[in-house]
Amino acid sequence: MALFGGRKTVFVDADILVIGGGMAGCGATYESRYWGRDLKIVCVEKANIERSGAVAQGLYAINCYMGMQWGENQPEDHVRYARNDLMGLVREDLGYDIARHVDATVHKFEEWGLPMMKDPKTGRYQREGKWQIMIHGESYKPIVAEAARKAATEVYNRIMVTHLLMDKSKANRVAGAVGFNVRTGDYYVFRAKAVIVGAGGASHIFKPRAVGEGMGRTWYAPWSSGSCYALPIQVGAKMTQMENRIVLTRFKDGYGPVGAYFLHLKTYTQNGYGEEYEKRWYEDTKALVGDYVDHHPVPTCLRNHALLKELAAGRGPIRMVTKEAFQDPHKETVGWENFLGMTIGQAVVWASQNIDPKHTNPELTTSEPYVMGSHATCSGAWVSGPEDCAPADYHWGYNRMMTVDGLFGAGDTTGGTAHKFSSGSFAEGRIAGKAAVKYVNDMGKAQTQVSEQEYRDLEKLIFQPLENYRVGRNEIVAGTVSPSYLLPIQGLQRLEKIMDEYVGGISTNYMTNGLLLGRGLELLGMLKEDMNSMGAEDLHQLQRTWELHHRLLASESVTRHTLFRQETRWPGYYYRGDHMKLDDENWHCFTLSRYDRNTGKWELEKAPVHHIID
Ligand SMILES: Cc1cc2nc3c(=O)[nH]c(=O)nc-3n(C[C@H](O)[C@H](O)[C@H](O)COP(=O)(O)OP(=O)(O)OC[C@H]3O[C@@H](n4cnc5c(N)ncnc54)[C@H](O)[C@@H]3O)c2cc1C
After folding, report:
1. Taking the C-alpha atoms of 406, 411, 417 and 419 in order, what is their torsion angle to the nearest 10 degrees?
2. For ligand 1, what atom is nearest to the CA of residue 179?
3. Does position 1 have pLDDT exceeding 60, yes or no?
4. What is the percent of the chain with per-residue pLDDT over 70, rounded to a whole number?
5. Is the CB of 246 under 6 A from ligand 1?
6. Residue 343 alpha carbon, nearest atom of ligand 1
7. Is the beta carbon of 161 within 6 A of some atom in ligand 1?
8. In DSSP terms, which residues pair with 594 in a beta bridge?
9. Measured distance CA(536)–CA(530) in Å, rounded
10. 297 upstream amide cis, omega within 30 of 0
11. Alpha-carbon distance 30 to 195, whole Å?
12. Could you tell me the CA-to-CA distances from 73 to 79, 315, 577 in Å, in that order?
């Protein structure tokens, strides 16, 4: 195929364009059809929605289910839980909105064929913990995708969306998106009245513990490239809490999850000498964060903090005590199945390292940081809340609409709403879908208009790396280092190194300060300049190039937010060495940023945290 010559441009018109067919995107597509029977609803996905996103290889538990039908929990309880875990800072209106709708979403999953584990005595869903229910979830994603496929007018798989398009007739209104087919190289121009971004969070912005041939083995899906942040940032949407990166305690080398082990198997941790260590760090932690250390359950970041301190004191490795629980054959089976349905790589690592958890307590470690707004942290877009419970300054029209007209978000995309997980992301997608239909209906006969000049300029920009490679390749006879271009893997490793060393990655034990962050921004700026010289050998590498662009913009946002918040709010996720303490007096607030693509400047500000639940 001629990569640069006979490229086709495909135009797609839609009422609602859903970008990313993961949990949130599938929820948005499904619900948009319910409320917008006659609307054209298009879902576009860079992989194939059948097996895409963080849930691609299945899950063993749905981590957000209230159980309101049995009086197990109420939405208010979940808001309190998330607020506690995030050291006081969550958008309570958004969290409450998800919690009140999430059970209905889970019931739909069961109706669509997801096998749920049931308690044989009560007939209720089998609880793993207060919020988690257990599933046979290897096929979770295909089941959810089927609902979206049936609801969509069209699903476009294998299209990497690179940019949003703005309306040429009305300032600050979205009008579509562009991207390319990663298999055929066709250029796609989507024109839409409303756009919902559900394009997942960001892995591989910090250097991972697994390097070399193992670098794809991260906890978070390696294909999550921060598009859900970069796309809105590029068009000036406000972002919030981007400093609130997540670090996970996981089984070493395979990043296997520990939730089922702690909650269901009742295993516990100890240091290398077989001692309990968390209590040892109580006073130290209290000196940093005050009474937050006395909250129950202990916030996740503070448990990381104790682990990190114990390791730094030279009493590693930290181990999960599995030997006791695994004497029970039922628990042993559950322990292994937990990986087989979700992280099969951990079982393989144990097998290859002669670790049988019945006889050896496996090691734990902390991951490199990731950015995601649906798991246990709050990074993402600043969105309007529900009209019945959002405080006035959190509400500017349509639920889940960003500060750009017609641009909605859900799942990892939206900020301030930790602990929604797979079910909450789908539920939030539904909320955004319903609101987007209302937005489109309210537009009436008005149309959005895209500028031909804009999408033709973007086409040149998007495909330029293929040309850079074609020309520059002639200057070298062998190897991969060229004077004329930078390959995506080289750019990625440079980004990961900067973020790791300057913005609080694993090499510095998550420590940073104003000086390091300032230097990190300078180095990110230099990388940004070099991005004009990216070289892509083929369409696959072109996709890697644009994923790198998105990761870089998301990283800059993380760095600027981290610099802005002058305190250490979440020790165990990262530390500001120049502001080691939590500072409620000055920083019990959200951080907001806005990027101006015309000037390249960022503006940062504080927004109040309103507590609407007692
Ligand atoms: C390792 C891990 C374990 C987890 N375990 C659990 C668990 O046990 N229980 C639970 O309930 N939840 C769990 N979660 C959380 C859950 O997976 C997420 O909350 C949920 O998937 C978020 O939904 P999303 O739609 O925002 O992102 P995703 O589901 O990741 O979907 C994003 C989609 O966007 C697509 N995309 C990205 N960029 C582009 C682009 N530029 N153009 C087009 N398409 C694009 C992706 O391919 C993907 O399909 C886990 C998450 C991770 C990472």
Report:
1. 170
2. 42
3. no
4. 99
5. no
6. 1
7. yes
8. 603
9. 14
10. yes
11. 14
12. 11, 39, 39
